[in-house]
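Our consortium's second objective concerns turning raw sequence data into structural hypotheses that experimental partners can test. To show how far this objective has progressed, the report includes one record in full. It was chosen at random from the queue rather than selected for favorable results. The single chain below, 320 residues long, was entered without modification.
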Amino acid sequence: MSSITSKKDSPLLSPDADGGLDAGIQSAWRCEYPFASNFLDIGSSRIHYVDQGPAENKGLDPVLMVHGNPTWSFYWRRLIGSLSAHHRTIAIDHLGCGLSDKPSDYDYCLQNHVDNLCRLVDELDLSNVTLMAHDWGGAIGMGALLARQHRFQKIVLFNTAAFPPPYIPLRIRVCRWPLIGKLGVQGLNLFARAATFMATERQGGLPKHIAAGLLAPYDSWKNRVAIYNFVKDIPVNFRNPTWQLLEQIESGLDGVADWPILMIWGMKDWCFRPECLERLNRHWPNAEVHRIADAGHYVIEDAAEQVEQLVVQFLSRHPS
């Protein structure tokens, strides 16, 4: 019996997910995400993913989109829309994120996220994959790529890292403080809410309906369990298993240096700062790099049209 299930209708969150929003904002963000739901069983839980594209392309040129924290597949909505006419576009929601299940007793560590992504790639029997990743998605995606290297072909990264953290910004460290961090991140949703204006260079923050869409799945203490655990999993020294995995991932970067690689960076990102781009570029000196001077961490939100154009051109220049 297959562990893959699908649902034809666009996914709807619980009625409380839009609590406090007026009907116009609710309708607007949901219209931004008109995609059908698909699910993969992982033990007793289900991982949600989007799988778009023309039927005749189901076996060709897949683009696998891997989000970070505190986003979900909604972050990729514009690229899903623009690429799915010619590519199979798959966007995962990590366990605990987006429309995936959010078990409270799960070990939300990097290795498990990597293993879950590998499972999805295997279950869908993907080949010639373009990895597209942002934030924590870079480490998760590159971990899966190196573990299933024969299934991948191209890499597109946005403001991310695939190595142990060279620094942890103060505003992130505060979120890791015992009790205070958990209450703030998981209790008051301060991490995800702050990102809607601190991760963008748009004056006044993201538009209300876009912020509402990014926040919608994270409407309760229970539903924010993965957001807190992503922050908690940031390693501070080599004794941490996640640090060791990140070292292992970085050690594999040189082995794919001759692949087609595109890196697009919001240069005003205070978290994955330009030195993260330069560190990746040292491993991949021949990568195509675009620095967007006036964009922040949510570079796809800040420079949507430019990003779409760069990605479409890159994929057309490097067909499978």
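The partners drew two points from this record. Confidence is low (pLDDT under 50) at residues 8-12. The longest strand covers residues 152-160. Both points have been shared with the crystallography group to help prioritize constructs.
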